Amino acid sequence: MAKLSKTWWGQKFIEALEDFTNSGRLSRGRSYSSDRRILKFEIKKGGIVTATVRGNKNAYFGVYKEPKYTIKLQMMQVPEQDWKKVINYLGSKASLVSRLLMNEMPDNIDAAFSDVKLHLLPRSREDFKLTQCSCPDYANPCKHIAGVYYRLATQLDQDPFLLFELRGLPRDKLHDALCQSPLGEVLASTMDERGDAIEEVVDSYYPRPLPAGGIADYHSFWHGHKRLPTDIEAPAPAAVPAILVKKAGDNPAFWHQDNSFIEIMEDVYARVRKNRAKTGI
């Protein structure tokens, strides 16, 4: 069966639900996650998810006309004092704060929450404050709620920062809080509001030479005050290689295929390197 979710975040969200939800009931909702079924979908303030789902006629339940059911979901909100612990921890890790300020969700974000005794993805039914459907099915999740779960997973494919909003922290507050951390303040000073590096305008392509002051000490210039090291440590690879390609994620807006855009580009670059090695160009 094809996966409805394409990225790590969406897949992990569904896998987390499957750990404490009847997998059979959950899978029934796959066909209820399409636009043909979900007539209205909205995420409101406080992480409240509302949806209108088109149901089926069912004489057993006394439903003789095609109904429209209202679904409401809300995850438990992380308390403010716990958010402060999370922000302090994220702001102390350069690998995390740098990617978050560039609007990239780190793959190990849930592990980072675990380090402060919290979790971002749901782990039990208690992580959902509200799961309601107006249909007559008494079981939870019904297929309409399950369909909204799958729709949430596809939304996370496009915007993984919804995980924070569903837990009660809007992205603008997250960004502002991270910018106030020591590492975040330094990084934010080099980026614009979209997370792109700020370009400085200069009056010359090459740096202009500055006049030397005093009498040149040629002996010190050529011999130096300290012996040069015999072993030079190899430079570390870039923290985020191929940043321009990876910035839009696995499924950018222009990409409509089921496979990952980043994986395709990695294969393209590998072929280019191989061809260059053969031709010597």
Automatic annotation (TrEMBL):
A Pfam family hit: SWIM
Keywords: Metal-binding, Zinc, Zinc-finger
Record domain SWIM-type: where: 118-153
The species this protein was found in: Candidatus Venteria ishoeyi
InterPro entries according to UniProt: Znf_SWIM
GO MF entry, a single one: zinc ion binding
Descriptive protein name: SWIM zinc finger
Taxonomic superkingdom: Bacteria
Transmembrane segment boundaries: none
